[in-house]
Amino acid sequence: MRVNSMLNKVIALSLIFLVSCSTGNTFVTVDYSNNANLEIMEQEFFKSSGSGKLIAKGQSNFVSRFDFISTKNSSSILFKDFLGRKQFLVEIINQDIRYIDMKKRQDIDIENFSNFFPIATKIDANTYKKLMWGIPDTFKDMDVAVKKKFMISTRLNTLDGRNLINELIFSFNNNKQEYKLIFLDRQFFEENTKL
Fold first, then answer.
1. Tens of pLDDT along 64-81?
2. What are the CA-CA distances from residue 134 to residues 144, 185, 186 (Å)?
3. Pick from 77, 69, 76, 78: nearest CA to 47
4. Contact at 8 Å (CB) between 91 and 83?
5. Is the pLDDT of residue 7 over 70?
6. Are 51 and 65 within 8 A, CB to CB?
7. Phi/psi of residue 141, each to 5°?
8. Which residues contact 57 (CB under 8 A, 6 or more apart)?
9. Which tens digit of pLDDT belongs to each residue from 50-68?
10. Which residues of 120-147 are buried (b: 16+ CB within 10 A; e: fewer)?
């Protein structure tokens, strides 16, 4: 009986010690019912725009800032190099995607663009649009074979009571290469704010 009491005290003290030594990370319970929904967002707003950065770490290392704009029928993402020069433009009209090398001022195919951002070969027009609008379930219906190739982790933020994608990390090649997509700001515009 006395041994059990002593053992319980040691366990309790160990737990207190471990909790006090842990980092200050706080975990927040996410209410998934507040996740942004594209159809609802498009009824309320006519445009989403903002900026962010793409960070590659591993065999390929770089940081590329980007600006984006998305409406119901068209979207675009403009990637810039570390000096702020225009590098690549992804232009989406309905379901058609066009990739443009801004330095060479010419259209390129998806294979050439995927040398910069390999995940592009797995992203369709709807996925790009959902990313720009911050929809958390963007990759929910992704093909299982793709999910085996890329490990995707998501960080959300809350804006006006809606959960939106704030950061995405794509890891592949057994974590030897990582692409982090960070949305630094995102704004939504109502119909009456059209110019």
1. 999 999 999 999 999 999
2. 22, 11, 8
3. 69
4. no
5. no
6. yes
7. -100, 15
8. 177, 178, 180
9. 999 999 999 889 999 999 9
10. bebbebebbbbbbbbbbebbeeeeeeee
Tokens linked to 156: 């959300």
**Mean pLDDT taken over the chain:** 81
Q: What are phi and psi of 191, to 5 degrees?
A: -55, -40
What does the angle CA 175 – CA 57 – CA 23 come to, to the nearest 5 degrees?
75
| pLDDT tens-place string over residues 126-165 | 999 999 999 998 877 665 445 556 778 888 888 888 889 9
Pairing relationship of beta strands 47-58 and 177-189 according to DSSP bridges: antiparallel
SS3 176: coil
Structure tokens at 149: 């190739």
Answer yes or no: is pLDDT of 19 > 80: no
Q: Tell me the H-state helices in 45-186.
A: 110-114, 125-133, 144-149
Find residue 79's DSSP bridge partners.
66, 88
